[in-house]
Amino acid sequence: MSEPIVNTWKGPDRFSDLSKHAVAGHFSGHPLKAVVGWEGAIVWDSAVDPVDLLNAYILQAYKESCGQCAPCRLGTARMMTLSKNICEGQGAIEHLETIRFLASQISITARCDIGRTLGKPVLDILDAYKDSFHEVIQGKRKVNTGKYKSIVTAPCISACPSRIDIPSYLENIHLNRFDEAMAVVRNDCPMPGTIGRVCVRPCEANCRRAKLDESLSIRSLKRFLADQEMFAGMPPDTRVSESHPEKIAVIGAGPAGLSCAYYLGKNGYKTTIFESQEGPGGMAAYGIPSYRLPREVIAHETEVVKQLGAKIQYGVTIGEKISLEDLANQGFAAIFIGVGAPESSKMRCEGEDAGYQCFMTGVYFLAEAARNRKPLEGQKIVVIGGGNVAMDCVRTARRLGFSDVNLLYRRTEAEMPADPLEIKEAKEEGVVFHYLIAPVQVIATDGKVSGLKCLRMELGAPDTSGRRSPVPIKGSEFVIDCDAVIPAVGQICVVDCVLPEEDESVVTKWKTLIVDQTTFQSDKKNVFGGGDCVTGPKTLIAALAAGKNAARFISQFLQHGQCSPDETDVLQAIVSSKGMFDQDEAFAYPGGTERIEDPVLEPDYRVHNFKEVEGGLSVAEAREEASRCLRCYRILTAAL
């Protein structure tokens, strides 16, 4: 069954091994029998009736048609009627040509990709199974209905860890339906104000509009909706459909924990969140400066979680005075661990563990700044790293009064993992970037940092990350005089501190929690985990997605005593793992619009305070920008 009977899938090479992934992925214990989607069809099982398969796909296309253009609205309805008649033994040969004609015309004339991608799979199945269709029609045979599952996705949706239906909420913004747009967002993202400000925007990197002119300002539009809710009096929807008696403990009030509590609350479960810090937000609050993410945004979105039944106990560190066993004894039926990655990685540099004054890790430096403290003194500071934490450190240092702020990175700017926008704004604020430099030794005078000994590097062969490895240049040592040093080279997890010693078998050597990658359930059946404490340091949207998905499986565990992925989980995993954005795609015509960006404070003003750097879009700007969406929806239907 590894080799398909029929394979008309003509997508890019990244889909060439779709059959391997599909057959390996099981739906309730059964492999896929066939798939049909935007690039054709693949059939593995001869028991699949192609007439029924095509009917299932056309039916889904009809259901998903937005109805805004007549060819797709009317054409898919007609195709559905004809296909249904054929399946019921009431078709005619000429119906096949009509279906073929309609599919072709819809593909040419439809406004969005539900219609524009309809032609190839329909024509492929009609061509590959011509005899089967003729046999059904001429024999007046009724077709047995099989079991199918369909998903609707898009390149931007597939790239988003939480799979937010981006085209849908953009369409609602364009149509001035802000309530409906926010409902779409909150269905998969419980913190739109946070994500709308600090997301790393994988959706925008996979936006097909960029092939025409520029990608959509998807993050800004999400923020627009959140600002409408917070500042324009649009109340959040905190309705709960049902209520359950079970109590659930959530460890950590960071993005993963708040997300899990939000969706558990929507499902009618009461949660208690245990947070070691004095306030909510985790690394979003104590690791992201307020000029990027104002504290009132986190406070508002935490309040929404509380309105859904969550209670938060601050200053409580699980693993010290309270254990997981204690939580179980207190009647918590399930536990979600979302403690993040709050510790800093080592530079492997001499002197970093000597306890010198004015040497401080980036994570701690940002946390102290978030508490309105100035933890370091001096004028010249050196930050080591190339990620967003490093960018936050140098930009925060400027706002705390350091006049000479330097960033050291051991590769070049091309390899920096930080958001390009963060790099740009740091440079505008006067941060000096030094590339191909690595620290060797922290130098101190009388126990206080006075310099940093460094080594120049050159790039060698690519490493496991795909970036070229930095190679030391022998004899290139030099010293940078400075008043303070901040390493910001990565973060590590501390989930082992939460677990008792006998449970350390569920922790990896990287101190991350071992859970099922789909259900987020650990070997201790009542314990779930998600976010950085499972994956290692990752994105905020990935943590929110983990909390959302874990909440669904916690609910399943409490109601049925076990967790198992459904068909949608497996189909989504296949699509997301292979990606959808075609780097080589070319449009027949150029675009003519520029994306609308958030307004930004002038550098000379913003470096002297922690006011939010980016402003929000106006209603008119948001509607205009949302109208640029191409609605690149795709349908994938699988026979089970």
List the helices and strands and how they pair.
Elements: E1 6-7, H1 18-24, E2 26-27, E3 30-31, E4 34-37, E5 40-43, H2 50-64, H3 70-87, H4 93-109, H5 113-116, H6 119-128, H7 130-138, E6 148-153, H8 155-159, H9 166-174, H10 178-186, H11 192-198, H12 202-205, H13 218-231, E7 247-251, H14 255-266, E8 270-275, H15 283-286, H16 295-307, E9 310-314, H17 324-329, E10 332-337, E11 343-344, H18 362-370, E12 380-384, H19 388-399, E13 404-409, H20 420-428, E14 432-435, E15 437-445, E16 448-462, E17 468-472, E18 478-481, E19 484-487, E20 491-492, E21 527-529, H21 532-535, H22 540-560, H23 567-578, H24 603-606, H25 619-626, E22 634-639
Parallel strand pairs: 7-8, 7-10, 8-9, 10-21, 12-13, 12-19, 13-14
Antiparallel strand pairs: 1-5, 2-3, 4-5, 4-22, 6-22, 11-20, 15-16, 16-17, 16-18
Helix pairs in contact: 2-3, 2-6, 3-4, 4-6, 9-10, 9-25, 10-13, 11-13, 13-25, 14-16, 14-22, 18-19
How would you sum up this structure, described in words?
- The chain is an alpha/beta fold and 640 residues long.
- The protein folds into 4 domains: 6-150, de novo design (two linked rop proteins); 157-237 and 580-623, Fumarate Reductase Iron-sulfur Protein, Chain B, domain 2; 247-341 and 493-564, FAD/NAD(P)-binding domain (3-Layer(bba) Sandwich), CATH 3.50.50; 346-490, FAD/NAD(P)-binding domain.
- The protein is built from 25 helices and 22 strands.
- The strands form 6 sheets. The chain has a 5-stranded antiparallel beta sheet, sandwiched between helices.
- The model is unreliable at 23-27 (pLDDT under 50).
